[in-house]
Amino acid sequence: MPGLVQVISYTQTLLILSGCADAKIDLVFVLDASTSVTEPNFELMKDFVKDFLYEADIDGGNVRVGVIIYSTQDHVEFQMNTYRTKADVYNAVDEIPYRYGSTNTADALKTMRTQMFTRANGDRPGVENICIVVTDGVSNINARRTIPEAEQVRGEGIHIYAIGIGLSDTRELDGIASKPVEENRFAVQEFSELRDLRHKVFSALCCADAKIDLVFVLDASTSVTEPNFELMKDFVKDFLYEADIDGGNVRVGVIIYSTQDHVEFQMNTYRTKADVYNAVDEIPYRYGSTNTADALKTMRTQMFTRANGDRPGVENICIVVTDGVSNINARRTIPEAEQARGEGIHIYAIGIGLSDTRELDGIASKPVEENRFAVQEFSELRDLRHQVFSALCCADAKIDLVFVLDASTSVTEPNFELMKDFVKDFLYEADIDGGNVRVGVIIYSTQDHVEFQMNTYRTKADVYNAVDEIPYRYGSTNTADALKTMRTQMFTRANGDRPGVENICIVVTDGVSNINARRTIPEAEQARGEGIHIYAIGIGLSDTRELDGIASKPVEENRFAVQEFSELRDLRHQVFSALCSTEAPVVTTPPPPPKTSCADAKIDLVFVLDASTSVTEPNFELMKDFVKDFLYEADIDGGNVRVGVIIYSTQDHVEFQMNTYRTKADVYNAVDEIPYRYGSTNTADALKTMRTQMFTRANGDRPGVENICIVVTDGVSNINARRTIPEAEEARGEGIHIYAIGIGLSDTRELDGIASKPVEENRFAVQEFSELRDLRHQVFSALCSTEAPVVTTPPPPPKTSCADAKIDLVFVLDASTSVTEPNFELMKDFVKDFLYEADIDGGNVRVGVIIYSTQDHVEFQMNTYRIKADVYNAVDEIPYRYGSTNTADALKTMRTQMFTRANGDRPGVENICIVVTDGVSNINARRTIPEAEQARGEGIHIYAIGIGLSDTRELDGIASKPVEENRFAVQEFSELRDLRHQVFSALCSTEAPVLTTPALPVGCAGARIDLVFVLDASTSVTEPNFELMKDFVKDFLYEADIDGGNVRVGVIIYSTQDHVEFQMNTYRTKADVYNAVDEIPYRYGSTNTADALRTMRTQMFQRRNGDRPNVDNICIVVTDGVSNINARRTIPEADLARGKGIHIYAIGIGLSDTRELDGIASKPVEKNRFAVQEFSELRDLRHQVFSALCGGKLVFMDLNQTAEGRKHTAPAPYPAQKWNKIEQMDYSGITGSYDQAVNFPTVTQLLYFIPLLGWIRAGRSMFAA
């Protein structure tokens, strides 16, 4: 997907916001505010506008901006001459209200043309007119006028960029955008992706066997600054990440320059990437003036020489990176570059922050636009790597390319469309128009069809159109004939094959050949024998042997596998990389799960689909895709399954009856033709029509065949709402089984009333329409299969160390009716996943399992199996024995029959029981908690996991104490997998868990803290990211006891100067603090961390400003860059603050060099310095920092004090008398000497270590101290 900076690069006069200071643009944003957008997403849209304008020259008058929003009506928010400064524009954007309604794009385009691009409202003669339309839906008011209005706009010289969010049908969007469409229409799936759209999207293309002699010429002048020079060095290493240095294909040298130039190393100095990386790290910063001319001369005369590693016949490449214009020998700079180019050295020139690129243009090889690159910040160099490497390695690549696409019945038409999208996406950057790349396509099922040859089309637009027109020709799978036709009829001179040009074939298939299967691999071998390189892509294959036989060798570089057709898009970069690169991508693909069989089931099936306005047309298309996907394995052609469809909004419409179509192809075509009929939500009438008109003999209902209805809706009825549930009850009373699927519903009461009983087996809920696809397996399973649903599980997560722990472990699993068989399979998966790293084979861990419903069943004892493979097999064989919920008896059996010597319980080994349940006992309920107490009284430690429980009192009574450390809760069985880390951490690790799921509460209720946030507001942060930073502050304080007075908070922000936003005694309630944080303005500028740290220490941690004696002083610094003002003072200022007893947590965002951050943070660094790559990751960081903050606070309270009595939070050496105090406690079961200990665990470690080692009494005593 192109980036928005590419949007604007369609002419060089437009706002390429990096290095385009003199561009004049009159710009109007047209923003969709319809109901389907929702207010949170409308806020993201506004953030996009501000982010887009981040570097626009509004204050200087080059760029003028207006905004119009629309739903049912349009509203001009401000004209292009309303505001003259960026600050005013930003404020005006922030003030735009969300005016929801229908989607009337036509009127908005008309108003933009007739009222905004006018002299009176700021339009300037001779200045380019640009309009950016952002929408999430197709017009549902004046829809016929939308494209004509856009045509009128374009006819008056206004260039339109159209951005669509979540659209499956982009035809209207294509009609709005200027031509060519592929350069002016952009699409993302989520509003949150708008931000990423602004930046250029790079392609990871490298060079397969390319030999390159490469020299970097790096500017080290004073204006660069040392931190930025470090970023420049990082760019060099990042650039070389995939370069084949060790194999000898690429040789590298580096020269740096300021007043003088210095050859750091020649191209024959180092032969391995590791040595080159080390040498780059060692390059010193030699600041001075800017003498580019001498550096270019030295590069040409001393580096590209035989003596220093230059090889004859190998391309000479030079990459110049500079942030300024020469101020020494300036007149010689371009002539020196010309001499270098004249001697065959190809020069790529990269400029950082340049407003005048004339010298840079003169340095770069021609054409300039392909060889000169510009960014605004040194931090953007990293993203530039792909562009330069692409230009360097694949610019002149000639390829003759044929796609061989499987169109067999198993693919399905919707997936075939995804396959065609993959082809177009793959060709996005291919040079078809310039003649370097030629493309042909052949599809196959029972027979093969050449859709077009490599010489049929000469432009990308024509190829794209031809791909769009390819029909779906379903049938069997005859790969052999397709490969033969590709070889004998397509790679021929007559059909466009060029001598001396590489022949590439990409095969995409979802199955193994079932026609001419024996010939498939021999045909591939013949093709490869004639010099055709084959990349083979398989979708959802459990057996890849045929695919491996098709692909060129080595297989691991030329065969790719994904599980879903929707993943093809992501595969594009891997295949294109392999095509242009020596190294194959690592593709981790878990084997596909078994298919759910329903072959012989007879079903009369009706879909009831909500088409109301709130659904939106794109989501209605997803709903139709769900229907087709659901029917993928249904035996329609054989007559077992009959299908009808009714849709509804204000009224209902029977689209087709169950006896209308008899083949799956006809049903699929009919589903595709269903129109979107938006309106209100009248579910009651739809249910009535389904019952009275569809499930009838006349319309295909068969006697003795099960009647199934699947209702899919995104809302509660707003017409005939009182009749909805009674209508469902009548349908169920007539024997119609109803499955109800709700999308994005917070209130499921109506949905529950529609679904058959028990509700938990017949009502399904997802948050997004895009999740419907994944739901197919659950519903189909519930409908007609005894097998578990498809569960795609990623590779197991990083290991939690538990290597030497001895544990006797019993799982107690609830198999009651409410669990359902599919969820019971998920429960069994959880057991296996949990045991993934357990040392069963070595004998450290023993495992037993008991399941229960009305009765309990010991599936196997702890001494039954001794190896993990046997345990896994035994778990797989556990049957689902549904019934009532008798937890009491299961706990009793676990205690009396499983934790016994005879059945594997070992003396001196910790006894652990993990109970997993979805409900409250309904047999022997009064005995449940007493049985748990007896088990715990006999030394069995119980972890209790509840799924979907609103009342956790029984669960709390089962779990060991403290409850918050031993009781875990999730909402869905599918979340069990993520819970594994928390429970396993609690069970046997001394390290804090990885908190990727909602964290266990960190007890910090009574902690007294004086807390100051120091927030970086420099220009590099950007205003949208500064808002995320403020959100982090509020999120961090979510559980802080501000109102009770335990926690006081102050905030200081900084850029060129620092600003105390409020002191610790300014606000006394959390609500006031939140409001104050919201009001903090973004004050951009340079990065002066030193002064901010000084102000924090000298002005904020003061008695008069709220600092309290004997209360811990905590400072949290959040920054995205290295200081560029007073840089030498930054770490000394941090040292002074820490010396005064202020504990500093330092958080860095997107930093490649953390040395300054490390110097700011308290020691040890690894516990007090945190790093994330994106501002959006700050939210997830809250738990880690809060854990570190409160963990230390609880552990060290009253245990270790300085002379002033201030309590430390960081681990520190313990004096002997303190250990004597601790030794007086009861450490039964613990061995070892504690007087030799140096560091005491943090509270996070205790929370997960104490339960296993029996330190509960020690922990209680300590917390009470």
UniProtKB/TrEMBL annotation:
Domain VWFA: 26-201, 213-388, 400-575, 604-779, 808-983, 1010-1185
Keywords noted in UniProt: Collagen, Glycoprotein, Repeat, Secreted, Signal
PROSITE patterns linked to this entry: VWFA
GO cellular component: collagen trimer; extracellular region
Protein name: Collagen alpha-3(VI) chain
Classification via CDD domains: vWA_collagen, vWFA_subfamily_ECM
Principal location class: secreted
Subcellular localization(s) per the UniProt record: Secreted
Species of origin: Elysia marginata
